[in-house]
Design a protein that fits this description.
Blueprint (H helix, E strand, L loop, with lengths): L8 E5 L4 H12 L3 E6 L2 H11 L2 E4 L10 H8 L4 E4 L14 H29 L2 E6 L12 H21 L4 E8 L5 H14 L6 H6 L11 H12 L10 E4 L7
Parallel strand pairs: 1-2, 1-4, 2-3, 4-5, 5-6, 6-7
Helix pairs in contact: 1-8, 3-4, 4-5
The protein binds nicotinamide-adenine-dinucleotide.
Nicotinamide-adenine-dinucleotide binds next to helix 1 and helix 6.
Length: 254
C-alpha cells in the first residue's frame, strides 16, 4: 500500500512535545521523513530516532539561528512545513511585560513568516508544498489576559491566508488548524496562572475557565490534532487552502 506522504520531507517546529510531537508521529505514519525542530535538543533527537527522522536543535528566538543563510540550508527540500512552536503568558495588559509581548510575537508570528519565506522558493520549484500553521481557537476568538497570544494567533491567520493566495498557482497550500484546549504541557503550565488571575482554586480552572465555551466538555487530545495536520498535508486536501479548521469542541460555534 502506498502511503500518502511517501517521499515527502516535513519540518515541524516545537516537534519535541505536545501537538508538534503528535503531528510528527502522524506525518511519519503517513510515510514522510520528519525533521523535528526544537530547543529541547534531547527530546527532538529521541523522537527523531523513534521515527527514523532527523532533528534540528534550535532556539527559534535566537536571531543567529534564523538568518537567511541558515534557513536556506534547513528548508532545502522541505515539502511540508508545520509552524507549531509556541508559548503562553497569562496576565492583564497593564501588567504584561513588553519584552514578553515581543518574544511571543517573534516566536509565533515572525518566525513562521521567516520559515515560510525560506520554504517557498523550493516548494515553488517543486510545484508542491504544504504550509500548516498551528493557530488556535484564539486565532478566531479572544480571551482576557492573553493579549500577546491572541494577537500573534490572529496575525498568523492573516499570514496563512496571504501565503495561500500567493502559493495557489505554484501548488502550495496554506492552512491553519484551530484547536481548543489540548492536553499538553503548555495547558498544564497555565492552570496555576489562570487560577491566580481569576482568583479561583486550581481544580476549578478546567470547568470554570477553560471549557466554559465548549459544547464537548473535555480537552482535545494531541493525536486528534496530529491527525488533522497529516490530512491537510495529504493529497486529499489539495483543494483546501486559505482555510482555518477548528477542533474546539464547538467553542467557536457561539
Ligand atoms: P508544548 O509546550 O507541549 O510544546 C511546545 C514545544 O515548542 C516544546 O517542545 C518547546 O520546547 C518548543 N519551543 C518553545 N519555544 C521554542 C523556541 N524558542 N525554539 C524552539 N522550540 C521552542 O505546547 P503545545 O500545547 O503542544 O503547543 C503547540 C502549539 O499549539 C502552540 O503554537 C500553541 O499555541 C498551539 N495550541 C495549543 C493549544 C493547547 O491547548 N495546548 C491549543 C491551541 C493551540
Amino acid at each position: 500500500m502506498r502511503l500518502p506522504l511517501a517521499g515527502k520531507r516535513a519540518l515541524v517546529t516545537g516537534g519535541a512535545s505536545g501537538i508538534g510531537a503528535a503531528a510528527a508521529r502522524a506525518l511519519s505514519a503517513g510515510g514522510a521523513h520528519v525533521v523535528i525542530a526544537d530547543m529541547d535538543e534531547l527530546g527532538a533527537a529521541s523522537l527523531a530516532d523513534e521515527l527514523g527522522g532527523s532533528s534540528w536543535a534550535v532556539d527559534l528566538l535566537d536571531a543567529d539561528a534564523v538568518t537567511d543563510a541558515r534557513l536556506a540550508g534547513v528548508m532545502d527540500g522541505i515539502d511540508i512545513l508545520v509552524n507549531n512552536a509556541g508559548i503562553q503568558r497569562v496576565s492583564p495588559i497593564q501588567d504584561f511585560d513588553p519584552a514578553e509581548f515581543r518574544r511571543i510575537l517573534n516566536l509565533m508570528l515572525e518566525v513562521p513568516f521567516l520559515l515560510i519565506r525560506a520554504a517557498l522558493p523550493g516548494m515553488y520549484d517543486a510545484g508542491f508544498g504544504r504550509i500548516i500553521n498551528v493557530s488556535s481557537v484564539h486565532g478566531l476568538r479572544a480571551s482576557p489576559f492573553k493579549s500577546a497570544y491572541v494577537a500573534a494567533k490572529h496575525g498568523l491567520e492573516g499570514l496563512s491566508k496571504v501565503t495561500a493566495l500567493e502559493g495557489g498557482e505554484h501548488g502550495v497550500t496554506s492552512n491553519c488548524v484551530n484547536p481548543g484546549y489540548v492536553r499538553t504541557p503548555l495547558v498544564e503550565k497555565q492552570i496555576a496562572d489562570q487560577a491566580a488571575v481569576h482568583g479561583i482554586p486550581e481544580d476549578e480552572v478546567l470547568g470554570r475557565i477553560l471549557l466554559t465555551e465548549s459544547a464537548i466538555k473535555r480537552l482535545v487530545e494531541p493525536d486528534e490534532v496530529g491527525s488533522l495536520i497529516a490530512w491537510l498535508a495529504s493529497p486529499d486536501a489539495a483543494m483546501v487552502t486559505g482555510a482555518s479548521y477548528t477542533m474546539d469542541g464547538g467553542w467557536s460555534a457561539r
